[in-house]
Amino acid sequence: MRQVARDKDNARIPRDPAPSRWRYRYQRLMLTPGFRKLLRIGAPLALIAGIAGAWFGQEANRMAVQATWIELRDEFQSRPEFMVSAMDIIGADGDLSGQIRDVLPLNFPVTSFDLELEDMRELVAALNAVESARLRVRPGGILEVAVVQREPVAVWRTAQGLKLIDAGGHFVSPLQARADRPDLPLIAGMGADAALDEALRLYAVAEPLTEKLRGLVRLGDRRWDVVLEGGQKILLPSDNPVRALERVMALDSAQDMLDRDIALVDMRNAARPTIRLNPPAAAAFRRTSGKLQ
Amino acid sequence: MRELYESQRAMRNMRKVAMQRGVIAILDVGTSKIACLILRFDGPERFRENDGVGSMAGQSAFRVIGAATTRSRGVRFGEIDAMAETERAIRTALQAAQKMAQVRVDHVIASFSGARPRSYGLDGAIDVTGAQVEEGDIGRVLAACDVPDYGAGRHVLHAQPVNFALDHRSGLADPRGQIGNKLTCDMHLLTVEEMAVQNLIHAVKRCDLEIAGLASSAYASGISSLVEDEQELGAACIDLGGGATGLSIFMKKHMIYADSVRLGGDHVTGDISMGLQVSMSVAERIKTFYGGLVATGMDDREQIEIGGDTGDWEHDRRQASRAELIGIMRPRVEEILEEVRARLDAAGFEHLPSQQIVLTGGGSQIPGLDALASRILGQQVRLGRPLRVQGLPQAATGASFASAVGLALFAANPQDEWWDFEIPAERYPARSFKRAVKWFKDNW
């Protein structure tokens, strides 16, 4: 009979080749593929994360890292390759250039990392006189601002004063006096800017009258009046005003109608063009026609 | 019967899980050594695609990736005697095998040689319900077998259908799809002592492993040591182990009888130890180095240093001639073989058409055993070594690993057992309910 109750002193059999229960379990655990992977990848990661966490836990270390980072970043960004030293404005006249320089207050030299080109482009494009803008940093450290300027095509007289507007009816700039831009047609009245292309066509038709023509007045946002020298007016219909004006121009060239003492030519009813004479002319007309009768 | 079905089916499910995982351990708990093999299943023909030979008896489906042996402790007569010691020995073997395989195993198929196996021949007969024999009929005919009263405290280890007969045609391997009226089946039932099985399961569970199958080591050695035609024509495999000698009789590729003699190589060692007045370990060494069974004139002159470490010069310089050693060993081996003979006679082995006897196991390595065995057991005796399987280390190819290798083959291609077929529907309560409904319909 072998000894069943173990002697405490000889509890361990000296040359027992058997692994203990825990050693056996440990070996099995180490042979488990998932656990091995965890040890191989997870443990180093956890160690690194732990060390990093402990180090960053210190306020001073965080500050130092931040300071170093900022210093390195500034040093890199202020390298001469990235510096912008001048602004070149293309496609703008002197007045607009001044405005652009006002809205883009840059203290050159500045690093290109600090330039928010899209924001700056929007600022420039928001200027009234600018139709579109394109910004880029040209090699050589030059900020190129290429703008397409709005071309004023007409002068619009409103209650607030004279305005220059472009072909789309957009406001370009205010105008001090009509005499500053005598080359541009003058329009007036509410909604005149919206019907600008019609006004320009009418101007083209009224080419022979250029020296007599004072301007076009939009009435009721519906139809045009052509105002001539001396208060003479041509009232055009809302439908097909160009054709009506052409008829007037034909009458004028055939019979010099507008040189006569006429206050108003009313073309609103195409079937019955009407003229109004000035009072002396009307009296003379009445007299002569009475004599005839 | 129900709980038998359930426990064995649970093991089968474990085996399936292990197959899916691809790694399974083989544990042969013997009296003198515990062998552990770790098998990796990679599907058939993985390693020898361009080899024209094809699969070798199906065992090319797996590969041995770990093997370890340790001296067994706490096992007597093939049964666990001291649980804690056996558990440690199992742990040792498993750890070494896992270390070699570099893989963790969770499922183990175990075998043991002792536990007093007893064989029963069962038969059952049913009338086939349909025109052809269906899968369900097989389950029914198996369920119709009369289970003998094998006694309380015993456990069914194997229950294998070995023969089917349809009307007057016998010897059918697979009656499914055949036309007939009366289906008969013969079944071989092997029971062992319940406690031995429980102890083994407990010891394995304590090593954090799941049992995926149990087999008798006599059966396992038969699978690995008998060649195919021996299994077909009829042969007995005698596994001379350390504490028990297992014998299994095969016929038509089925085991039809298994038994175990509670005598083995350890008894030979004990005799040497007593006869020469040496310790068991010295006796074991003398047996393996100088052992034999047939004495010649030369053996009288060959002196063996017996040795000793008592300090007494006369005692420590003792010598014995090899003839003396043979004189001690031979009667014990004769006794074992005669006991085997008696079991074979009881089983009716002489009625088999072929009476091939294959000796395997560690005890079969005694020189001169084949000559002695042919005088006791009959003329057709040969020494058997287990089949070669892929990846098995050279050290584990000897006869003493017959049951471990057989168990590996068993793990790869298990024999159909009773519990692999569906339980017939009559056993379910739903059927009786249906019958009640039918009775109501008929009578109301």
UniProtKB/TrEMBL annotation, chain A:
The keyword Cell membrane applies. It is a single-pass type II membrane protein. The chain crosses the membrane at residues 38-57. GO terms for biological process: cell septum assembly; FtsZ-dependent cytokinesis. Its main location: membrane. Residues 154-268 form the Cell division protein FtsQ/DivIB C-terminal domain. Keywords: Cell cycle, Cell division, Cell inner membrane, Cell membrane, Membrane, Transmembrane, Transmembrane helix. GO terms for cellular component: cell division site; plasma membrane. It holds the Pfam family FtsQ_DivIB_C. It is found in: Cell inner membrane. The keyword Cell inner membrane applies. Essential cell division protein. Belongs to the FtsQ/DivIB family. FtsQ subfamily. PANTHER family: CELL DIVISION PROTEIN FTSQ. This is Cell division protein FtsQ. It comes from Roseisalinus antarcticus.
TrEMBL record, chain B:
Pfam families: FtsA, SHS2_FTSA. Keywords: Cell cycle, Cell division, Cell membrane, Membrane. GO terms for cellular component: cell division site; cytoplasmic side of plasma membrane. Its main location: membrane. It is found in: Cell membrane. Residues 24-225 form the SHS2 domain. GO terms for biological process: FtsZ-dependent cytokinesis. It is a peripheral membrane protein. InterPro entries: ATPase_NBD, Cell_div_FtsA, FtsA/MreB, SHS2_FtsA. Coiled coil: none annotated. Cell division protein that is involved in the assembly of the Z ring. May serve as a membrane anchor for the Z ring. Belongs to the FtsA/MreB family. Self-interacts. Interacts with FtsZ. This is Cell division protein FtsA. The lineage of its organism: Bacteria, Pseudomonadati, Pseudomonadota, Alphaproteobacteria, Rhodobacterales. The gene is ftsA.
